[in-house]
Structure formats: structure tokens, C-alpha cells
Amino acid sequence: MLLELFGVAVLALPASPPPSLVVIHAGAVIDGTSAAARRDQAIVVRGNRIESVGPWTPSAVPSGARVVDLSSATVTPGWIDAHTHLMLDPAGGDYDTQLLKQTNEFRAARATALARRMLDQGFTTVRDVETEGAGYADVGLKQAVEAGYVVGPRMYVSTRAISSTGGYEPNGYSPERDIPAGAQLVDGPVEARKAAREQLAYGADWIKVYMNHRSWVDAKGRLVSQPTLTLDELKAVVDEAHGWGRKVACHAYNGIGMRRALDGGCDSIEHGLDLSDEDVAQMVKQGTWLCPTMMPYYYEWAPENTPAGAKDRKRMEVHMPSMRKALKAGVKIVFGTDAGSFSWDEPLAKEFAYMVEFGMTPMAAIQAATSRSAEMLGAAGELGVLAPGAYADVVAVAGDPLADVKVLEKVVFVMKDGKIYKEPAGR
Ligand SMILES: [Zn+2]
Known about the structure:
Low-confidence stretches: none
Number of strands: 21
Structural class: alpha/beta
Number of helices: 10
Bound molecules: zinc ion
Largest sheet: 7 strands, mixed
Helix content: 25-40%
Distance between the termini: 37 Å
Shape: globular
């Protein structure tokens, strides 16, 4: 319709079209919070939100809705990988090669493909815990995903990460050479706070700190880890981040660094390979999250009769009892793979099977990757659940993951923000 406006003919556009309406017919629904699956359900998606979840009734399908038949599949909320490094890919060379020889532009371009791969595997949200020398490339990638230029998960990013002098890769270079570090290295609470301020100002959703760096097996056969930031340095970072309403993720294995991480008030312990009873009790008391990341420790061990080989085997040996202790005490556990520290060719869903092997039920492992991670991210009710009002992030797998957790590697359907990115063939 043409209108006259101030003497100029303008085209009057119709009101914006109504939001799309999709009804998913699910063979079974695992909603992210309930203790059991529910059979034969309908999930109504209007626009980018879930409108309702209830028993499937063909006559109740609203007119104009598109029906997606997942009646032989199990449908869950989109998954959250709470520990990745999208700017790293070992297929492109070892750590030092990536840091020293690859441009940030190359690494960011590569990360667009890895982000797509994550989404195809059912991960609709990611907390990427530092760029490993690629600066603020994660902020740019997140912006490109949000603007629709790149297909990938929703991103929570932590930019450069913080450690101390001598507390991060790369190691072993001549002191005469000026080698860039994989993290922002600080000494003293003033520098620590300044680094946190910079990272928050340039777009960090989380601050990542390293509380341990080198690990080795001592003469008594114990795993020992070098501490990095002091308690005062960590407290400055945590205080600053909390003031901005942001959280702090602490890479910590055990020992002095772990004690400082917990005394300093960090929000999530990454890896937590070797938790003492005292560590576990403090995590429960403070409500600290644990992101255990089993996959990297099963990947490529150094030869057995070398210090590095002994360390690799020891890390695995202590991890299972540590995780079982945390589970028993009720520590809040989230799902994280540490992808990027190992090859992206490995299916990310393998982490679910490790979680089950380490003592979780398949349902608890699925909740760790859905509602629990969403809660840690401050998005409870919006992400990680199939419930009215949540973002329409939906994944389906062929089979029953509660009977065989490995079927989580067989993703047949992915919807993010109401848009379908993958669906069964023949449609
Ligand atoms: Zn990591």
C-alpha cells in the first residue's frame, strides 16, 4: 500500500510476520531438571522461546504449526560445554606453534568452523575459558555469532586469562628472547586487579585464572603442583570481577594453589584433579562449582618411564577418587570437555561417558550439561531446560541415553534460539 507522507509516496510495510510456530513430537523428553524422562511429549516453540511442554495430542497441534517428528528420539535441552578453548586446535600444531606462528586472524577464522562443529554435536552454549594468546578473538567470535554471521553456540567468553610470571606457557625459551605468554601475566594485587579490569572492559563474561601451572610426581609418589597467583593477587581479581557481577573460574589441580583458589573465593574450580577432604568441604560450604574435564587426561600420555609420563598417569589415578569424593559430598558439578587442549575430532559427548564411569548417573551427567551449567552461568530457567519461557535450544538423540550414555554421540536434531540447524535426513 502506498501512502502520502509529507508529499512523498512511501510504501507502508505490513506488520512484522507472526513468530514461527514449531511443535516437536518427542518420543521421550529429558527436561534438564526432572528426575525421570517423560514419554510421548509435545514441545511447542514460538519464535525463539519454548511456549509449552506436555503430552502429545495430535488434535491439539495449533493450525499453522510445523510439526517435527522426533517420536523415535529422546529430546533434551541444548547442551552446555562449560570448558573449551575455541582458539586452540592441536591439529594445527603444538601449543607453541599455534601461539608463535599462527595469527589471531587465522585462529579466529578456524574457530568459526569449530563453533559450527560444536553446534552440530548438540552444544548450543559454550563457556570458552581463554584464548591462549589470541587476545580478545573470543569476544569478536561471540559478536559474529550473535550478529548471525557465524553459526555456533551462544558464547560466554573469558578473553586472555590471568597467571603469574613463570606461571604459564610457553616455557623453556631463552630469557634474552621476548616470547609472548599464553595468558596475561601479573605480579602483585595491583597488576592483578588492572588485568581483570582490562579484560572485563574489553568484553570478558568470566575471568579465568590459573592457580597451578607445572605438576610433577614427587619422591613419595604424590602429585605436586606449582602454585601461581598469591591469595592477595587472586582476591583482587575476584573482588573486581564480583563488583562487575561477573564470576571467576580457577584452573586448580591440588595443594597450595587449590587452597588459595578456595580461600580467595573463586566461583568454579576447573579440573580439580586431586581434591582433599578439606577442599571438598570448603567447596560445599561456599557453593563452588566443579568442572572436572576428564577427556584431556585420557588423551595422548607421554611414555611411561619419563617424568611427564609418570605425571600423566598420576593425574588420571587421582582424578577418579577425587571426583567420587566430590559427588558423595554434594559438590555442584558442571560439564566441560577442555576441547582445544585435545583434538576437535574427538566427539565432545564422550565426556558424558567419562562422567558416568567416574560415578555419575546418566541423568546427573545430562543435568550437569544442561540445568546445572545454566545455573552456574546465571541463566537458570533460560538455558538448559525444556520449560515454558526458556530459550528454544533443543537437542535430540537416537535412542535412550539413560540406558546407554553413548547414544549422546548420535545427535539427530539441533535447534538453537528457535532455529533448526540439524534434523533427521529425509525432510
Ligand atoms: Zn582448559
